[in-house]
Design a protein that fits this description.
The protein is mainly beta. The protein has 2 domains: 40 residues, no CATH class; 106 residues, no CATH class. It contains 3 helices and 10 strands, in the order ββββααβββββαβ. Strands 1, 4, 5, 6, 7, 8, 9 and 10 form an 8-stranded antiparallel β-sheet that branches. Strands 2-3 form a two-stranded antiparallel sheet. The N and C termini lie close together (5 Å). 9% of the residues are buried. The N terminus is likely disordered.
């Protein structure tokens, strides 16, 4: 089961969880409010006797790479913990650049993958945009959070 944490439709998203954006003009200029939501469930087979389950599979690097679909990313690398108590199982995922409001941007996500015996949680630790100076300045005004159970 996978569920992306987000809003319940009151944010302007439709019932299918498709991306929705709104633009408002304020005295200080234009302000965009963007949101995205997606829910997806995939039924997995129980582990075979002696083979382990999904939790064991996701403890291996190949399992994490499969879960995060690293072939679709521009780059993927483990994030070194800042200290011994830093986030274990953290990865930096850079998506391919895309056009966004007339700019080229490349989203960069730091994700933590926490497998358990029966499932796995993927948590977004940070999200920022890379691109032109004006795009990167917007990172100070942007924040994102996501938690996904699979």
């Amino acid at each position: 089961r996978a569920a992306s944490a987000g809003s319940n439709g009151a944010d302007g998203s439709d019932e299918r969880g498709q991306s929705v954006s709104t633009v408002a003009t304020t005295p200080s200029g234009r302000r965009a409010r963007l949101s995205a939501r997606r829910r997806e469930s995939i039924r997995l087979l129980d582990g075979l006797p002696g083979q382990g389950g999904i939790g064991e599979f996701l403890r291996h690097p190949a399992g994490v790479e499969s879960l995060l679909n690293t072939r679709a990313l521009q780059s993927f690398a483990p994030v070194e913990p800042e200290s011994e108590s830093g986030p274990a199982g953290a990865f930096r995922c850079t998506l391919h650049p895309m056009g966004f409001l007339g700019f080229q941007v490349a989203p960069v996500l730091d994700l933590r993958v926490t497998p358990t015996r029966d499932d796995c949680t993927v948590e977004m630790l940070s999200c920022r945009f890379e691109g032109s100076d004006s795009i990167e300045q917007q990172n100070e005004l942007f924040s994102g959070h996501q938690s996904m159970l699979s």
